[in-house]
Amino acid sequence: xxxxxxxxxxxxxxxxxxxxxxxxxxxxxxxxxxxxxxxxxxxxxxxxxxxxxxxxxxxxxxxxxxxxxxxxxxxxxxxxxxxxxxxxxxxxxxxxxxxxxxxxxxxxxxxxxxxxxxxxxxxxxxxxxxxxxxxxxxxxxxxxxxxxxxxxxxxxxxxxxxxxxxxxxxxxxxxxxxxxxxxxxxxxxxxxxxxxxxxxxxxxxxxxxxxxxxxxxxxxxxxxxxxxxxxxxxxxxxxxxxxxxxxxxxxxxxxxxxxxxxxxxxxxxxxxxxxxxxxxxxxxxxxxxxxxxxxxxxxxxxxxxxxxxxxxxxxxxxxxxxxxxxxxxxxxxxxxxxxxxxxxx
Length: 345
Description:
Blueprint: E1 2-8, E2 18-26, E3 31-41, E4 52-53, E5 56-64, H1 71-76, E6 81-85, E7 93-97, E8 107-112, H2 117-129, H3 140-178, H4 183-197, H5 199-226, E9 229-232, E10 237-240, H6 245-295, H7 298-307, E11 315-320, E12 327-330, E13 333-336, E14 339-344
Parallel strand pairs: 1-3, 1-8, 5-6
Antiparallel strand pairs: 2-3, 2-5, 4-5, 6-7, 9-10, 11-14, 12-13
């Protein structure tokens, strides 16, 4: 067994009593992961600590080293983690774990920036869908299957982002320096960044859309079977048909199963379709702004503001004479050229 503690980087240097809230996950490979997502000030007393903050669990606290808490006090306040701080050290120190592995090297404290905000919000969204969101009674087994799949997908995507973060940071820094003088270039870069960060939400939308379409199509076909009809491909119409009893029995079972699973799939499809629509709307707004800025006469407006507008009372046109007549040759024909000088009065 191993322990992983995901702690925000700014919490690693806190110098005041603080409560930590987040999520706990136990993977199949016997890895316990603590995700610290939020923190609040702590006034430690003998009273019970508030163990809920929205949809987050109470994980533990950050205490002063002079507090001298023992294991009984940790158990009393149901702490899973406890850190301490002092004036001599810049960072906090882990002093207590509710679950202790066999070897200390199996304990890992992973610091992350708040750039994982999108991933944290997705975890929060899945937490809302767990159970009965807005009073809807979802299928427990299918709901747990969706949650496990999506959480595993988010964990993979989080690991991938952590892996490519140094490379992406260098690439975007170089590209940003190239386009430092172009605002539309920066907007296009922001659109690409949002697309990369929101790729997993797009994948969730595709998964739920495909599954919803399969179930909807299956219900429409099985509905014709339980009614004793079938579609005649040659004649292009629906006709009655005498099915065998076992065929009707299997069709009824599958129809009932898909019918009761459809609401759960529909809820996930609506949620991730709305998330996809929100992402698409955001990207469309940035793209619209970028295109408008490309054709907006900003340079002309700046020149007008700097130089001002001049009123012209009169325009004088003078013919500028040459010693030799100027002409152009076009298709072996001479075209006379006259030069005029325009002045304003």
